[in-house]
Amino acid sequence: MAKLAQQLKQLLTHKSNALLCIQTLGGFVASLNGVQIEAKTWGRDKTIQLFQFLVSNRHRNALHKEQIIDRLWEEEAGDKDFKVALHGINKVLEPNRKARSEPEFVVRQGAAYRLNLEKIWIDVEALEQFTTIGNKLFYEEEQLSKKAYEYATDLYKGIYLPNRVYEDWSSEERERIQILAINTFVSLSEMELKHNPNESIRLAQNALTIDNCWESAYRILMKAYIKNGNRPQAIKTYNTCTKVLEAAYGIAPLPETKKLMDEISEIG
């Protein structure tokens, strides 16, 4: 537990120590030494595409140049386009780097490339690490777990790289982060249910904003409304859940959800 608490502390200081900070949730923003990089500074779209691709694949081993070209641009670009885009990234991020010196942020390993995460803070990376700590502490240290979840949910500003929604290379990471964020909102909502039902409601609603078919979030909402003495709203929530699941998948709520509704109906 002490090790996890130390990891949490290190995560909180990483952003202030990082030379480069990247926001991907709700919009793409890069800040170098505390100064936001203007969109026009990146120049060609392929330059910023390549950097965002490396962000999306940060957990993989260094990717070969040919893999990157094939997955990012397919037949639309070649080796020359890659070199120009990579040069553009290094020029934006390290304008004063000496000739022939190795870049700090994009690490080259032969003909393969990856990001140097020790020098870069990325919102989705921080969100994932905060959530992981929260999950590990969930049954051992509730308050510290809750704090980790709060740090994670504060980072969620919207979908991952919204300007790349229709580009296949970003889809896997977008879906992964959405599920991670939903589970974090739901876990924190469960924690708040006993002592702070209003906050529990807010968090569950945030989860449903990301995915309105997340059934466990509806159950938490129903419980929170009952805690607040609002049975009509709890019933309305169940009815909404039923309609949404039927419209989206042609299915009924789980037995657990139906049982909760039966219990609510019997109140009073």
Features:
61% helix; Serine Threonine Protein Phosphatase 5, Tetratricopeptide repeat; 2 domains; elongated; single chain; alpha+beta; 3-stranded antiparallel β-sheet; 4-stranded mixed β-sheet; 7 strands; 268 residues; Arc Repressor Mutant, subunit A
- Give me the side-by-side strand order of the main sheet: 3-2-1-7
Q: What is the CATH fold-level name of the largest domain?
A: Serine Threonine Protein Phosphatase 5, Tetratricopeptide repeat
At CATH level 2, the architecture of the largest domain is Alpha Horseshoe
Q: Give the count of structural domains.
A: 2
The proportion of residues forming helix, as a percent range, comes to: 55-70%
Q: What's the CATH H-level homologous superfamily of the largest domain?
A: Tetratricopeptide repeat domain
Structure write-up:
With 268 residues, this protein is α+β, with helices and mostly antiparallel strands. The protein has two domains: 19-121, Winged helix-like DNA-binding domain superfamily/Winged helix DNA-binding domain (Arc Repressor Mutant, subunit A); 123-265, Serine Threonine Protein Phosphatase 5, Tetratricopeptide repeat (Alpha Horseshoe), CATH 1.25.40. 61% of the residues lie in helices and 9% in strands. It contains eleven helices and seven strands. The protein has helices at residues 2-17, 45-56, 65-73, 79-93, 123-137, 142-155, 168-192, 197-210, 215-227, 231-249, 255-265; strands at residues 20-23, 29-32, 35-36, 63-64, 106-109, 112-115, 120-122. The strands form two sheets. It has a four-stranded mixed β-sheet with strand order 3-2-1-7. Strands 4-6-5 form a three-stranded antiparallel β-sheet. A hairpin with a 2-residue loop joins strand 5 and strand 6 (112-115). The longest helix has 25 residues, at 168-192. The protein is elongated.
